[in-house]
Amino acid sequence: MGTASSLVSPGEVIEDGYGGEGGEACEIPVEVKPKARLLRSSFRRGPRVIGASFKSTGSVDLEYAAEYERLRKEYEIFRVSKNNEISSMQKKEAKLDEENKRLRAELQALQKTYQKILREKESALEAKYQAMERAATFEHDRDKVKRQFKIFRETKEKEIQDLLRAKRDLEAKLQQLQAQGIQVYDLNDSDSDDNQTTVTAAGTQCEYWSGGVLGSEPSMGSMMQLQQTFRGPEFAHSLIDVEGPFANVSRDDWDAAVASLLQVSPHVPQALWSNTVRCYLIFTQETKAELDVFIKKHSPVLRRMCEALGHFYLNVCFPEENAASYAVERRQEIERSSVCVLLVKSTVTSSVVEDCDEAFVKNPDGHPLVLYLRTEEDHNLTGPTRQLLERVNAADKAAKVKVVDHSGSAEEGAELIYLQVEKVIKQELLGLEGADVDSMDSGIEEGREEDSGDVLWDLHDEQEQIESYQQACSCSTTSQLGFQKYIDRLNDMIAAPPPTPPLLVSGGPGSGKSLLLSKWIEQQQKQSPNTLFLYHFVGRPLSTSSEPVLIIKRLTVKLLQHFWSISGLSMEPSKILEEFPRWLERLSARHQGNIIIIIDSIDQIQQAERHMKWLIDPLPVNVRVVVSVKVETCPQAWRLWPTLHLDPLSPREVRSIVNAECQSMDLKLTKDQEKKLERHCRSASTCNALYVTLLARMIIRLECLQCQDTMSLYRLALKMTLNSLNTDREQHIMREILCLVCASHNGVSESEVLDLFPELELPVLSTLLYRLNRLCIVTLRCGLIRFQHLQAWEAVRSEFLGGGSSLAAYREKLIQYFSQQLSQDRVTWRVADELPWLLQQQEDRTKLQLSLLNLFVSQNLYKRGHFSELLAYWQYVGKDKSSMATEYFDSLKHYEKSCESEDSMTKLANLYETLGRFLKDLGLPSQAVAPLQRSLEIRETALDPDHPSVARSLHQLAGVYVQWKKYGNAEQLYKQALEISENAYGAEHASVARELESLAMLYQKQNKYEQAERLRKRSVKIRQKTARQKGHMYGFTLLRRRALQLEELTLGKESADSAKTLNELGVLYYLQNNLDAAKIFLSRSLEMRQRVLGPDHPDCAQSLNNLAALHTERREYEVAEDMYERALGIRKTALSPDHPSLAYTLKHLAMLYKRRGKLEKAMPLYELSLEIREKSFGPKHPSVATALVNLAVIYCQLKKHIEALPLYERALKVYEDSLGRSHPRVGETLKNLAVLSYEEGDFEKAAELYKRAMEIKEAEPSLVCGNAPSRHSSSGDTFSLRGPAPLPQAQR
């Protein structure tokens, strides 16, 4: 029998018939069990029998043969069967081969089908993408059509607004006719006595009547020129009159007053000249000991204090021995000084007398003054000294000079001077009354954040822009440039109907583009008070002012400031650029006038086209954009815009500039020189404003005529200045200073220059800067020495730095200086601005990372809003957001180990909070939670759980939960922060408003619109009230500066205008609740009017009326009563019996009588006031209804209910007919009638009237706010009808 192994031999390869690969055949062992019978017979053991028979042997053979035959047959049978099986298997194999071929054919068919379907799918996807592109194009076209339709709609709406404005003007004229005694009835005329407002949401206007009290004699005059405000009456309680208002001033006018002050603010002299506290010290040899001690011991303390607050400090003094050679510089420094200190003993020199006359006698109100007089028994004052002190005393009419009389040692005297100067800096210069030196830094930062919500703001950037504008406006050559033709063309282009693309002002370098734009802004602000101007002057490349994100952020914040809210502004750089056009569109719709955006030298911005894409989109209908560029650097896409090109100067304009400059130098040119100048200034490069100005100031050097462009002229100016210096050392210092300014980020300060060059004396530095400024090379801006023009910067690079190849050495010098300050833990805004930037320019990534890991450097950058700059530094280092967060957190953990004192723990909490806010703004809320939570823990432990700083931590932590959409947790934290803020500051603080706004936004995200609107309206009321008290971010400071400017106008001859100005100042101080200052100015106004106009003039009655109102506010009722009676007597004599001003005085005197319980004296005055109103306005005017209610209140308090009832009913009918049945005054009159009915016993009628009054009150939208009314509003006066009103208690 065979086995399967016999079919193939080992090692033989079998081909796979199914298409598989060949394989090697293996021998398969088969076990065959032997036959038992055969084995037994064949191998039977045992002894063989020798004598066996043949038969036995033969039988064995036979058995073998039979067995063999049987085995052969079995083998044949087995072989046949296996052959049959093999043939069967071969048939099956052939069949399987056929099946395999069929399946392969089907597979190929399926693959072809798949490829076909795949191609069809790709075709379908391509068709889908094409459809999507067509849809996107359609969307874009649709948006474009929508924008065009919106512009068309806004144009028509603007026309309607113009018509409405014209209507209001006519109504105002009708009111003036009315005030003049002409009887013209108009439903929309204002009640001339009702000086109240209804609070509305920001940006909306009440549709009541407009006008102010006593329109015939405005005490605010031309100073305010406020835009017309719409004021609606408050609710007519039992006493509807405002307590002690001014003649025509409501504190609700404060919003408009701040807006007006912002418009004129660039012209107001600043308390700090260029962000520097300049202490001018006048001394003699006898007081030099005190001066030395003050400079060495106390000046560093003052400097650290000022630098911690973001200002520079500089002592300015000229030695006696060479003071005469610095006469011009001394006058300039006195003019710039913030405070002047005179140190005198017994004798004085001529230079001391000159300085004292300049500082103390000629302009005693220009700056704070300190007089240190050292007295000793054996020393008497000499004649000149005594005369000088007498002149100083005579000039000090307002007693502003702080006198320090000392007879002790020089150290004690220096200590007294230091205390006075420190007090002046804190209180008068920086407005930090009662502030502690150690806590001022954090306090100021917190205050700034409270003013601006979560938006981080850099006042230095803003001051730089203001000073750039001021310097351009004050340029002496502007009047000779003939800009009026360009200004007229600008006005025409701005007045063109929308849509209007941006306007391009182009010209060569130095052609006067900045001067033109500044002059145009100045004129437009005077002519168009309702127009909002947002301007930005771009500095040299790579400076902070040329950073596109900071530019757009500043413009956005400035825009949002005028609408009382800057919440919701993102800090992410890309989002700032993306969201600006949306903010512009939203807020322009709320602004009543035009918005004009001016960006000067926009081509200095790196990649301006990419960052200023919003310029290409259609602008809102009331928005105009003006940008200036140089012709050669203007992007190609912008050249299609309407363009105003500045042509070269004409020969007449060149002569005008040269003559003006020569006249200022007391120099007269000969005719030959004039002809040479005329021949020289004929090419385009020699006929621009900068070249001609610089040429005129260098005219004494004949070689200047060889310079054919501004760059060569600047290089000659540098050589001239070098040659004018006395020593080689001074020349070297000048080169070094200019090179350092060129190598720095934003410039260097005077104090930094004096630190870098210890041997340099301030008089030499002052002279050098004066000469360089005179030659248009450098200027001081925000306390930093900077180049006036880009060509000056390029000239210094070319002349002293070999085109910039030597910049690295000077940058290294600055790096060493600021690194030294960093090692002394003096992290000022200057260190944060300069050091990281310098390290980046030096490509030193390791040191840059170390400087960024100094937590106070990063905190300073972040808190001043330089978010994008900080992020760019980390990107340059090569760190992503997560690794940067880890680095900061590790650094904070390391710093925490060294914190032990309470002050250090407070700083640590601030650092943790800053890190958390930074990470939140980066979009890393998960990593922001840990530092914010740690900040909260530290503040709760180190301070107190109810400390306001804890509320700040809760607020920031809630913001993270809002990003996570965990609104429940965020709401709980916001409410905790709100409760802490209310307990710490009161219910009407800016911090409370911030928490209310955050809660409102949270409720809006949750679709809880009713709750959100209620909180938002309450927040708006708080914002408006705090803004009225101190202005918004700069309002209070601007108000003080405006007051100073107006006060200076009164220093001349006494006149009616001067008295009017004094009255205006008193009103302004009243608006900021400074009653002491208001009393001084109003009293001076009264005295001057009595001397100039006579004691019986109506203007004297106005001053008496205002003073009476002020005394009423101070609870000095007897004095107020006397002044009201005097004012009433004058007006009865001078005015007609039915004059509204007479009614006004009658009303407020009657109100005062009523407050004091003199009801019998008040009643005839109210009756007379009612008669005057009926004659002036007619019997159906709302003002008459007001007088009826006032008289009815008096009758009720005198228990004359029968006389009061018809007055109330008549007033109710007039209110319903003139104002409507649902007006708040109708509701308050109904309430008074209900009380009267209750007193008479008619309870059913009382209930009906009271129910109707409550329905009107609940329907009034302005009452959804939960705040109690102000004590200055009529709604706050809730006298009962049951008896005489008690005197109100003082709330101070």
Main sheet summary: 5 strands, parallel
Number of helices: 47
Strand order of the largest sheet: 4-3-5-6-7
What is the end-to-end distance?
128 Å
| Rg calculated over all Cα atoms | 46 Å
Structural class: mainly alpha
User: What's the total number of strands?
Assistant: 15
How large a portion of the residues is in β-strands, by DSSP E? 5-15%
Give helix % range.
Answer: 55-70%
Mean pLDDT reading: 77
- As residue ranges, the low-confidence spans are 1-28, 30-52, 182-269, 434-453, 1030-1042, 1047-1051, 1261-1292
* Broad shape: globular
Keywords: Cell projection, Cilium, Coiled coil, Repeat, TPR repeat, Wnt signaling pathway
Protein name: Nephrocystin-3
Domain Nephrocystin-3 alpha-beta: 272-431
Domain Nephrocystin-3 TPR-repeats region: 811-1049
Describe the protein in words.
The protein is mainly alpha-helical. The strands form four sheets. The protein has a five-stranded parallel β-sheet with strand order 4-3-5-6-7, sandwiched between helices. A five-stranded parallel β-sheet has the order 9-10-11-8-12, sandwiched between helices. Strands 13-15-14 form a three-stranded antiparallel β-sheet. The chain has 47 helices and 15 strands.
Please outline the helices and strands.
Elements: E1 13-14, E2 23-24, H1 36-42, H2 54-179, H3 221-224, H4 254-264, E3 276-282, H5 288-308, E4 312-316, H6 327-336, E5 339-344, H7 350-361, E6 369-374, H8 383-395, E7 402-406, H9 410-429, H10 440-452, H11 459-473, H12 484-494, E8 503-507, H13 513-527, E9 532-537, H14 548-561, H15 573-588, E10 595-600, H16 608-611, E11 623-630, E12 643-645, H17 651-664, H18 671-680, H19 689-697, H20 710-724, H21 728-743, E13 748-749, H22 750-756, H23 762-774, E14 778-781, E15 784-787, H24 790-800, H25 807-823, H26 829-841, H27 845-853, H28 855-863, H29 867-877, H30 881-896, H31 902-921, H32 925-942, H33 948-963, H34 967-985, H35 990-1005, H36 1009-1030, H37 1035-1049, H38 1056-1071, H39 1075-1092, H40 1098-1113, H41 1117-1134, H42 1140-1155, H43 1159-1177, H44 1182-1197, H45 1201-1219, H46 1224-1240, H47 1243-1259
Parallel strand pairs: 3-4, 3-5, 5-6, 6-7, 8-11, 8-12, 9-10, 10-11
Antiparallel strand pairs: 1-2, 13-15, 14-15
Coiled coil: 82-180
GO biological process, one term: pronephros development
Subcellular location: Cell projection, Cilium
